[in-house]
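Q: Could you fold this chain for me?
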Amino acid sequence: MTSASVSWEEADIAVIGAGAAGLMAAIAAAASQPSRRVTLFDTRQKIGAKILISGGTRCNVTNVKVSASDYEGAAPHFIRHVLAAFTPDQTRQFFERIGVPLVLEPTGKYFPTTHSGKTVLEALLKETNRLGIFLKTGIRVAEAKKEGEWFSLIEGAGKSFFRCHRLILATGGLSYPETGSDGTGYRIAQALGHTLTQTVPALTPLTTDDKDWQSLSGITLEAGLSFFKGGRKKKEVQDSFLFTHFGFSGPAALDISRHYALCPPEEKPEIFAS
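A: Sure. Below is the predicted structure, expressed as structure tokens.
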């Protein structure tokens, strides 16, 4: 697989995006068929930025129990199929097999015993290397074209530099451009004929111009939040709530933010403490 006779300029499968999803996709593809040539691309030289900051830098990898109702979205049946294909038990077993022992916290979340996202990233990279996956960093894939049985990958300068039989997009959305999630994947997918649903900020802090809240910055408490649309309550959450220098964060604020973002101003969206 890594012999001189094999050109790095083509592969059976290419994965664009070497974050958590891209690393897992490449590992699964290579592990299921050892003779398969898999190449992983990422724009950044140092990959895994969101792995390193997730879970307050401790990177919780799964929960004891995960169900479709834990996810906010319009297609719960899709989530059920995804969760059935790779269960929390399988996730835990995978990470322990690649050298990440886990600890279960009272919240039901599994964290690496080191309480460091670096442990998770290093283990994923070690497994990537063990499977002979080619990792190419500092390369921005700007476009992909389907040409017969091949996908051609194109750099920002418009030059085709790589081809593959199968292509996996794991670029992230438009959530955190500094980590590489800058919306490029949306454009590639649309150019290949996929449709794109409306996107809005989700799992995001709530901001306020009221300066009085700044004196409480750093304080965390258990709180209930209710979202109202047109005077009617549509969603209620109960979880940890954090005051910040710019507004409010923590799981309660993050979970309810998407409902506010999706609601047009004419429907009078409001959030109250409940």
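A (continued): The longest strand covers residues 232-243.
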